[in-house]
Amino acid sequence: xxxLTFFLLLWLLTLAPxxxxxxxxxxxxxPSLTDRAERGDVIxxxxxxxxxxxxxxxxxxxxxxxxxxxxxxxxxYPLAQIKMAELHATGSGVETDPxxxxxxxxxxxxxxxxxxxFALAELLWQHPGSSQNKTEAVYWYRQTAQQGxxxxxxxxxxxxxxxxxxxxxxxxxxxxxxxxxDSGNIxxxxxxxxxxxxxxxxxxxxxxxxxxxxxxxxxGSGDAQLQLAYLCYNGYGIPKNDKMALHWFAQAAEQGLxxxxxxxxxxxxxxxxxxxNYSEAYIWFNLAATGEESNELTxxxxxxxAMAARHLSREQLAEAQHQAExxxxxxxxxxxxxxxxxxx
Length: 344
Description:
By secondary structure, the protein is mainly alpha-helical. Among the domains are: 1-13 and 28-75, no CATH class; 257-344, no CATH class. The protein has helices at residues 3-13, 30-38, 42-54, 62-74, 78-90, 98-109, 114-126, 131-146, 150-162, 170-182, 186-198, 206-218, 222-234, 242-254, 258-270, 278-288, 296-309, 314-337.
């Protein structure tokens, strides 16, 4: 169900008696809706504006859309205020005007509309103008975060950790990261792991770092899987465990991380965490060596591939090359369907 249908049905349901189960919803009576809008019904005004803006049920008409949306917005309807802000922010049918966009977002934000609060904070941050704008942006990020908006929690925490608003506050940053992380946000889990591993604003705690990396890794973060593999291999925050390192290097390698592929190949080549397997070593070295840009990692992979190849017969080498091609295709499909999480 799209937004317009929802609001029109909501409006109609407030007027109609409860359905018995055998009744059908009548087609929208546009003249009646227009009459109600003319008489000041704010939901009718918003519905007409939305319909004209998107061409839903009526011909698309930007001028009419702005007329009705602005009338609803001036009556204080937050959804209309947000829509007017979006139009001014993008220059859709009106002149691009960040100041007007901020003004409309601010009106809706003051009514505790979380989407408006976050959008206003983003706009203020992107168009700082002065330190006052950044201060206000942080205020609205905090207001949105307090409403449980996870993206705002992460954004606010990152600003506070980095001191981007002029003053760092690692204690509050950790608090908001933790709230977002407890809600399952991978970026927040990665940030907490980074903070605890590096002692960034908190006391260094390798066990806590390992736990947050583990949680992010289990949710599919290639970056977390790679870092967790290093912790396991080096025995940081956990007794050294080559088998576990092999597992997590393999998980990250499957996602196409060259560094993980190189390390996984090295484990197979040396027999760490597994029996020596020159074919698997060759396959992963080969995948790591196929990077579009030549760098230190690809050069090391090429050298490792040559080393593994010396231990393979002609038939084994041909099969390893075939398997590498198949895995490369699989890896490309996975890479295009997934988005890697970046450290905030």
